[in-house]
Amino acid sequence: MEGWDVDSAGVSHLKVRVRAAPESGKANAALVDLIAKTVDVSRSSITIVSGEKARLKVVAITGDTSALAAKLNSLGAAT
User: For residues 52-71, b (16+ Cβ closer than 10 Å) or e, as one string?
Assistant: First the structure.
């Protein structure tokens, strides 16, 4: 996880890099694994809502909203 960043339109997003190749869903699986470990939830709590075949994705995480928000906010700004 590289942290939070803001694009040219002013929209915040989390920058994440995985080593898995973007073939056969390997990169998406690696992304889900990384997010699950980072926010301490099960893989089944994470869904890629949109962007499965795109570089930019929208991800939903189910769980305790305040705990998830605290963990995500603690990631800090991208460098």
Answer: eeeeebebebeeeeeebeeb
Residues 16-39: tens digit of each pLDDT: 999 999 899 999 999 999 999 999
Query: What is the three-class DSSP state of 31?
Result: helix
3-6 and 12-15 beta bridge pairing:
antiparallel
Q: Which two tokens stand for residue 12?
A: 């915040």
**Domain segments of the chain as ranges:** 3-73
The verdict on pTM exceeding 0.85 is: yes
Residue whose token pair is 């929208």: 58
Q: Please state, as a whole number, how many other Cβ atoms lie within 10 Å of the Cβ of residue 9.
A: 5
